[in-house]
Design brief:
276 residues; alpha/beta; D-Maltodextrin-Binding Protein, domain 2; 2 domains; 5-stranded mixed β-sheet; 10 helices; binds arginine; Solute-binding_3/MltF_N; signal; Glutamate ABC transporter substrate-binding protein
């Protein structure tokens, strides 16, 4: 009789433990291991679309191809803070979000704007860079596009799946939208006269003018950049709050230190010296 009771008791304890294990197991799946995983891998893997100087672009330094730019410098600071090395995966912008969702990268740093649609599927850091939208044209056309109606019937480029694509669709109703998955292809088309204008954020457009004096200019036409699309943020997998917290701390430090301008300048110098 007594033996039986002990047996029952032990069985009871065993099932409580098993239940606990199951619950713990389930909990673990949804709990946030984002920082620990990066540390365990000893690597922070970021996704970027290196067609976007001065934020991300390829250079050849000492015979070696590498990707650099403002976003890469920011990513390096995050990796340093975590005490891991940085790995860069270069992918076209339209597939960056799915790279994140499919666990191919830990973070996306690619001049990405936090939009309401994207925020449904990934998490974003605080904004780290403020921009507005402008239209890049050939230098000879510098005075040709002064108002939206001047773009009527023109070929206007915007990178596929970007906020610029939306801007052309919504604000330049009479224009013919031309999209490419890579920004640099559109810049070449503009240079060759295949398209008439290219909608970009000012940080990128100004850089084209700066690095190619004599070729490009910023048109006078005013585009509206809503408050919701006027900046860049770092993206992480949905729920990776701990990793986002580390990113936000790095962003805070850059902003408090006032070193953002210097990072951009450093990136531009690298492009002028080693860019192709
Ligand atoms: N800020 C824009 C967006 O989020 C454009 C980003 C394009 N980035 C790039 N690396 N090509 O849609």
């Amino acid at each position: 009789m007594k033996k039986n009771m002990i047996k029952k008791f032990t069985l009871g304890i065993a099932s409580v433990c098993a239940l606990g294990l199951i619950l713990c197991g389930c909990g673990k799946k949804s709990s946030d291991n984002s920082v620990q995983e990066v540390k365990d891998n000893k690597t922070l893997t970021i996704g970027t679309s290196a067609d976007f100087a001065p934020f991300e672009f390829p250079i050849v330094k000492n015979g070696k191809k590498e990707i650099t730019g403002y976003d890469i410098m920011l990513a390096q600071k995050v990796a340093d803070k975590l005490g891991v090395k940085l790995k860069i995966v270069n992918t076209e912008f339209p597939s960056l979000i799915s790279e994140l969702q499919n666990d191919k990268v830990d973070l996306v740093l690619s001049g990405m704007t936090k939009t309401a649609k994207r925020a449904k599927v990934v998490d974003f850091s605080k904004p780290y860079y403020t921009v507005e939208n402008v239209m890049l044209v050939q230098k000879k056309d510098a005075d040709k596009y002064n108002k939206i109606s001047d773009t009527k019937g023109k070929q206007i480029g915007a990178q596929q799946s970007t906020t610029q694509e939306d801007i052309v669709k919504k604000q330049m109703k009479g224009a013919n939208l031309v999209t490419e998955s890579v920004t640099t292809s559109l810049a070449t088309e503009l240079k060759n006269g295949k398209i008439d204008g290219l909608v970009l954020e000012n940080a990128i457009a100004n850089n084209y003018v700066k690095q190619n004096p004599g070729k490009y200019a910023i048109a006078k036409v005013k585009l509206t950049t809503g408050k919701d699309i006027e900046s860049y943020s770092v993206a992480a997998k949905k729920g990776d709050k701990k990793l986002i917290k580390v990113v936000n701390e790095v962003i805070d430090k850059i902003q408090k230190g006032g070193t953002s301008g210097q990072m951009l300048q450093d990136a531009q110098n690298l492009q002028a010296k080693y860019g192709k």
